[in-house]
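User: Okay, second chain of the day. Same drill as before: sequence in, structure tokens out.
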Amino acid sequence: MRKVTTELMDALTLRLAADAIVLLHLAFILWVGLGGLLIGRWPWLAGWHLPAVAWGVFIEITGGVCPLTHWENALRQAAGEAGYTEGFIDHSVLPVIYPAGLTREGQYLIGAGVLALNGVLYGRWLLRYRRRGG
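Assistant: Same drill. Structure tokens below.
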């Protein structure tokens, strides 16, 4: 009985760790896409944001896979999961990170969109900075 309980707890711990990685992944995606909104208030964040943007665009345009995805899948497999179940994380968060039917062209568009959005945000910030005599 104790062995079964330990195995269930181990599987639950691995599943929770995988879910935490999904949430971290979503937070990173939001940071890449929207972090530029914070630069006007805290310009020092650009030093953290710009490398994240570069990584996000690189992953999209090369068709690469983020290491967080590999870690999540490894944890799920270690937990004995064959695939995702329909919990909140799986139903609400995963489709944002891994949209169904995503094509290479779609990835190019995402990468271009991230660049364009951040170009606008940083351009706006630079204009304000120059107007203030910075």
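Residues 2-131 form one domain.

User: Thanks, on to the next one.
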